[in-house]
Amino acid sequence: MRALVTGASSGIGRATAAALVARGHSVLGASRDPDRLAPADRVPRVEYAALDLTDPAAVEAFAGRLADVDVLVNAAGESQSGPLEGLPAEALERLFRLDVLAPVRLTQLALPGMRAPGHGRVVMVGSMPASFPLAHHSSYVATEAAIRGFADAARLELSPFSVHITTVEPGSVSTGIGQRRTTYVADGSPYADDVATMLAVLDRNEAAGTVLRMVARRHGPRR
After folding, report:
1. Checking DSSP bridges between strand 182-183 and strand 80-81, what pairing results, if any?
2. pLDDT above 80 (res 45)
3. What is the largest CA-CA distance in the chain?
4. Strand locations in the chain, DSSP E?
5. Using 50, 70 and 90 to split pLDDT, how confident is the model at 129?
6. Measured distance CA(145)–CA(100) in Å, rounded
7. What is the mean pLDDT of residues 32-43?
8. What average pLDDT does this structure show over 184-191?
9. Which domains, and CATH codes, for the chain?
């Protein structure tokens, strides 16, 4: 089978790509700038391709690479923190484009090639805050809830065609996402102390195996 894994340069995406290769899959790994990856960061036998998920034109241009994909793992994403009162509009838009709109569009582009032969698997890698919201994480919680909502509804549409869509919601996993988290707290914010406490707890606690089980599963689970 041919698999596309986004976010294949680090974290859950990288581990999933490696696990799929070990299972004998042909894997295309999407990364924002694969040319900058050190040899040690590349998964052997994974074909890397550049894809900036925040650029709608780049996502559309990637359509040809999705025509023969049997498995799509949308693992790329970004975390965002800060009190709702102070989140910049452009930061919200960027997060939704990366964590929601891009994976949904990639799924749309991949579905015709899965539906016609009557087999396919899409895995949306979300996060536990979709079910257990965190204070000062409202934007991230919203994106993870949105991606789960898309998957839950689409599952009902796709199952008659033997195309299965699954959401995986890991808890705190040491993937490096904490180091890439964007945080927006204005100087003198009344929320500053609470945000600092929340981030300290997250970083202290900082699921490829679960993703792999969803890829191999014969029937679409409820979630």
Report:
1. parallel
2. yes
3. 58
4. 2-6, 26-31, 46-50, 71-74, 80-81, 120-125, 163-168, 182-183
5. confident
6. 9
7. 90
8. 76
9. 2-216 (3.40.50.720)
Catalytic residue status for 184: no
Identify the residue whose tokens are 């894994």. Answer: 5
- For residue 171 the two structure tokens come to 């808890």
In the set 48, 140, 184, 191, the catalytic residue is: 140
**Would you say 1 and 69 are in contact if contact means Cβ atoms under 8 Å apart?**
no
Q: What is the CA radius of gyration of the chain?
A: 17
For the stretch 37-40, contacts whose Cβ atoms lie closer than 8 Å and that sit 24 or more positions apart, written own/partner, are: 37/9
Mean pLDDT (the chain, rounded): 86
Question: For residue 111, which amino acid is it?
Answer: L
Polymer length in residues for the chain: 223
Report the C-alpha gap between 42 and 46 in whole angstroms. Answer: 8
Which residue type is seen at 145?
Answer: A
- Residues 177 and 102: their CA atoms lie apart, in Å, by 18
- What is the residue whose two structure tokens read 């990288």? 14
Mean pLDDT, range 72-100, rounded to an integer: 94
Task: Give kind and range of the element (H or E) at residue 107.
Answer: helix 102-115
- DSSP output for 160-217: GGTEEEEEE---S--SSHHHH-EE---TT-TTHHHHHHHHHHHHHH--HHHHHHHHH-
Helix, strand, coil percentages (3-state) for the chain, rounded to 5, are 50, 15, 35
Rounded Cα gap, residues 165 and 151, in angstroms: 6
